[in-house]
Specification:
binds thymidine-5'-diphosphate; about 350 residues; binds nicotinamide-adenine-dinucleotide; Rossmann fold; about 45% helix; three-stranded mixed β-sheet
Length: about 350
């Protein structure tokens, strides 16, 4: 670590080679807001290439490892003495959790528990100002609140948890553990529950990048069920800014809902991507909407998510900056401009997933 900016805090970021974590790390380093130790297991979803623009930045250190490895985490805490931990590390894809729930329990529940326990031992040894300022921020999802009907009010921080997928259940469980470490041990924790993110560097198993890349490659655009499921979409850098704000100004033990105030049906999202691509990258004789293919629905598919983010606006002054129209166009442009990144993630392992998830649909 570079010692030239002693006033900049050190963050241990977990899962910082994944989609949101990497966007957060890049933002923190570009603005020099924090030095980063980046602990990532580098699963299929973790990609060091996403961090390539950092070059040999001495204030960013990528360490390959598991949040559940207490010995490694204890060693990193001892060596780098971080001022905060931001926990992004997770298995994050609902469809994968339906096919293989065990991994979700292992990382999202057991891994988070081990991380909390190791952090607690570190935090209890801190003294004075350093102890006072220390924070553990847990990044979670709106999916813990379950599913809404079209007329239900949006999720608030006091909406009861009702997770429906193995992914949501594992995240709910980790949120409860984080809460328990505040109430039982007084650990300085914060939790954020965010809606669906999109933007650069998202792995193409999730709806938006999958549709962009299939549409570019002239492949079918799989829409689950009737396409009327609703998600609340947030541009990833807006999420990253909200996390930084909660880290610096959030009230200990509290949770903050983060959302895009931007509810769309899946079919609208898919059709909008087709329109943007037909404009930015037209293909002679191809109307990309003709590629839309309705496929068998996801098991237990949540109908609607919507976030009420009044609390973070009122208490911390955060609002999303990007609109869906500008954010989506920027995202499409990013995928068009970065074919090497796309090629690298669409490896053999990715093809196996595509065959497994879409083969029988
Ligand atoms: P992602 O799947 O793109 O990245 C997850 C990262 O965690 C990967 O780099 C992976 O290698 C790493 N990881 C997995 N298991 C690990 C382990 N045991 N130890 C260390 N690293 C491990 O996920 P994402 O979309 O960037 O999501 C990040 C966090 O934000 C997750 O906790 C997710 O639940 C939450 N979240 C995501 C969204 C979304 O729309 N993507 C919305 C709300 C909340
Ligand atoms: P996804 O990006 O997997 O996020 P989440 O399940 O966490 O909300 O899916 C977003 C929505 O898009 C969800 O309602 C499922 C749907 N979907 C499809 O219709 N087709 C697809 O190929 C995928 C991956 C998702």
């Amino acid at each position: 670590m570079n010692e030239t900016h002693p006033s900049i805090p050190v963050y241990l970021v977990t899962g910082g080679a994944g989609f949101i974590g990497a966007n957060f790390v890049l933002r923190m380093r570009q603005s020099n807001q924090a030095k980063i130790i980046n602990l990532d297991k580098l699963t299929y979803a973790g990609n060091p290439q996403t961090l390539a623009s950092l070059g040999d930045d001495p204030d960013h250190q990528l360490v390959r490892g598991d949040i559940g490895n207490s010995e490694l985490v204890a060693h990193l805490l001892d060596k780098y003495q971080p001022d905060a931990i931001v926990n992004f590390a997770a298995e994050s894809h609902v469809d994968r959790s339906i096919l293989n729930p065990g991994e979700f329990i292992q990382t999202n529940v057991v891994g988070t528990l081990n991380l909390l326990q190791t952090t607690r031992a570190y935090w209890e040894r801190l003294t004075g100002d350093k102890k006072e300022r220390f924070r553990f921020l847990h990044v979670s999802t709106d999916e813990v609140y379950g599913s809404l009907s079209p007329t239900d009010p949006a999720f608030r921080e006091d909406t009861p948890y009702a997770p429906n997928s193995p992914y949501a259940a594992s995240k709910a469980s980790s949120d409860h553990l984080v809460r328990a470490y505040f109430h039982t041990y007084g650990m300085p924790v914060l939790t954020t529950n965010c809606s669906n993110n999109y933007g650069p560097y998202q792995f193409p198993e999730k709806l938006i990048p999958l549709i962009i890349l299939n549409a570019l490659q002239g492949k079918p655009l799989p829409v689950y069920g009737d396409g009327q499921n609703v998600r609340d979409w947030l541009y990833v850098t807006d999420h990253c800014d909200a996390i930084a704000l909660v880290l610096n100004k959030g009230k200990l033990g509290e949770t903050y809902n983060i959302g895009g105030i931007n509810e769309k049906t899946n079919i609208t999202v898919v059709q909008t991507i087709c329109e943007i691509l037909d404009k930015l990258s037209p293909k002679e004789g191809l109307d990309r909407k003709s590629l839309i293919t309705y496929v068998t629905d996801r098991l237990g598919h949540d109908r609607r998510y919507a976030i009420d983010c009044n609390k973070i606006d009122r208490e911390l002054g955060w609002k999303p900056k990007e609109s869906f129209e500008t954010g989506l166009e920027q995202t499409v442009k990013w995928y068009l401009a970065n074919p090497e990144w796309v090629e690298a993630v669409q490896s053999g392992a990715y093809q196996t997933w595509i065959n497994q998830n879409y083969g029988d649909r």
